[in-house]
Every structure is written in C-alpha cells, then in structure tokens.
Amino acid sequence: MAQTIITVATSGPGLYEFTDRVGEFVRAADMETGLVTVFVRHTSCSLLIQENADPDVRRDLDAFFARLVPPSDDPSMGWIAHTIEGPDDMPAHIKAALTAVSLQVPVIEGRLGLGTWQGIFLFEHRSRPHRREVVLHLSR
C-alpha cells in the first residue's frame, strides 16, 4: 500500500490533466498489480477520466457544463438559495454532484491501466484560482 497527497493548481474553470503525476506515484510504489484510487478533497471541483489528445474535447465539455449549469446570477437560476460565496459557487457544487470526486484505475504491470487516449483530469468548476488537494491511494 502507498498513499500521498498532491496539489493541483487551477486558474479558473476547466480541465487540468495530472495523469503524469499519478503515473509517477504508481511507478515509485513499485507495485506490479493493484488499484489506484484518486480522491479530490473539495466539493466545488471533480475528477474525470477523459480524452487527452484533442483539446476540443475539453473545450466542448467546458461549454456543455456552462450551458447545463450557468452561474446563479443567470435568470434561469433564480431558484438557487446558496449565493453567499458568489454566483459560481452553487453551480460548482451542482457540477461536482453530477460528476465524480473519486476514480479508480487498475495498475497493470506497474503502470496505469488507462487506454491510449485517456487521461486523469481535475475539473475545476470555480472562477477564481485554487490549489486543490488530491489524495492518491494505491492498494493491492
């Protein structure tokens, strides 16, 4: 078993890939077979395994979620009660609820068992920069 906490710095909404950092953690643990759990310790961002080859995928996902859950000062969001932390906060919680705060990836022959175009991303839902803590846990 191995465990660490890494920080992912964000500069606003969007997907931030950190696959390489998870892969380095797995290689350093020197475990041939296992399962790595990735867990984000926040309620206004989330995690995704998504395509990492074409940046248009990230742009389209950003646009989709912005249309699905606009800021709370948008007229369509007048039903939102939690507005004290700004117009991006409650929509960020909704987006996080619709996605995942933890992921599991198999470790095969000492490496992440991701597909060719898959990457691990932190999906930032807030407008301002943040330093997000992500727990990595590797078990047999």
Molecular structure report:
By secondary structure, this protein is an alpha+beta fold. The chain has a single domain, classed as Sandwich (Jelly Rolls), CATH 2.60.120. The chain is 25% helix and 39% strand. It contains three helices and eight strands, in the order E-E-H-E-E-H-H-E-E-E-E. The strands form two sheets. Strands 1-8-3-5-6 form a five-stranded antiparallel β-sheet, with helices on one face. The protein has a three-stranded antiparallel β-sheet with strand order 2-7-4, with helices on both faces. A hairpin with a 2-residue loop joins strand 5 and strand 6. The longest helix has 14 residues. The model has no long low-confidence stretch (mean pLDDT 97).
Within CATH, the superfamily carries the name: YjbQ-like
The residue fraction in helices comes out at 25-40%
**Coarse shape:** elongated
Ends: how far apart? 7 Å
Helices and strands, in N-to-C order? Answer: EEHEEHHEEEE
- Could you say which structural class the secondary elements and strand pairing correspond to? alpha+beta
Strand proportion: 35-45%
Tell me the number of helical segments per DSSP (H or I, 4 or more residues long): 3
Instruction: Quickly give the CATH architecture.
Output: Sandwich
Tally of discrete structural domains: 1
Largest sheet: 5 strands, antiparallel
Overall pLDDT metric: 97
Unreliable residue stretches: none
